[in-house]
Amino acid sequence: MSQLPLSTGRYAFGDDPEAYAAARPEYPAALYARLTEHCGLHAGTVSFEVGPGTGLATRKLLEAGCAPLHAIEPDARLAAYLRRTVAPGALELHETPFEEVVLPCAHFDFGASAAAFHWLDQAASLEKVRHLLKPGGWWAMWWNTHFGAGENTGDAFDRATVHLFRGIPKSPTMTGQGRPHFALDREARMADLARAGFADAQADSWRWTRAYDTHELVALYSTFSPVKSLAADQRAEFLGRLAEIADGTFGGRVERPFVTALYTARRPSA
């Protein structure tokens, strides 16, 4: 099975920002509390965010005091959505890929990326992040995933629908070769941070569940990059078969277990 190229992530999610924003689940409040306590977020924290998308994390970061918050979003449609839905003031939008954005080095107290950093080359991008941070500045990246705690076994709904994914491209989050899901591969993520010159790296995670009816579940799966990569007729068939399984096997209500994985690290002070 082929894997979607990293460049796919730049423009895969902007065709219907409203639907994407409505379908994707929020990140746990405990994550933002952890960022505030551990990374020292406060009013006036000079920050940047890589891949804000529809602003799911952006709004929470602004509430936590990240200001100014430089949001680097390559998709013009998502950037336009952010301009429409995020109150002007502290948010500064850069409509360009992270690889190409020009920002002052050693300028930022904090940098973040929510469910986007797997679309970038890890070595080069983490090195750029480190250079943007002030000495002692913090970096945080996190993801929501429902692929278990690293066992790659999934739950009953995963097992009932795994055949639907056969033959379609994989997201970069599905690393294969016996490795856990990208977000849950602590060994790899911590090694990436160490190679990029970060210090005090730490991994945190939270488990939670959310119940979906069939309509909500179809909306969620329609935002997944492998599904979005399909031609319109193939995508409609995939989602139709997904709905049939949700209704016929699970009675139209599916409890999904999630894991939120957070990685934080600091640019060394010296």
Describe this protein's structure:
This protein is α/β, with parallel strands linked by helices. The protein has a domain at 6-151 and 178-210 and 260-266: Vaccinia Virus protein VP39 (Rossmann fold). The protein has helices spanning 17-23, 29-39, 58-63, 76-85, 122-132, 156-161, 186-195, 214-221, 225-228, 232-250; strands at 45-50, 66-72, 91-94, 108-114, 133-145, 199-213, 253-266. Strands 3-2-1-4-5-7-6 form a seven-stranded mixed sheet, sandwiched between helices. The longest helix has 19 residues, at 232-250. The termini are far apart.
Instruction: Write down the overall mean pLDDT.
Output: 93
CATH topology of the domain at 6-151 and 178-210 and 260-266: Rossmann fold
Order of helices and strands: HHEHEHEEHEHHEHHHE
Question: How large a portion of the residues is in β-strands, by DSSP E?
Answer: 15-25%
Question: Uncertain segments of ≥5 residues (pLDDT<50)?
Answer: 148-152
Dominant shape = globular
CATH superfamily of the domain at 6-151 and 178-210 and 260-266: Vaccinia Virus protein VP39
Biggest sheet, in brief?
Answer: 7 strands, mixed
* Count of discrete alpha- or pi-helical segments spanning 4 or more residues: 10
Helical content stands at 25-40%
The appropriate CATH architecture of the domain at 6-151 and 178-210 and 260-266 is 3-Layer(aba) Sandwich
CATH class of the domain at 6-151 and 178-210 and 260-266: Alpha Beta
User: Helices and strands: which structural class?
Assistant: alpha/beta
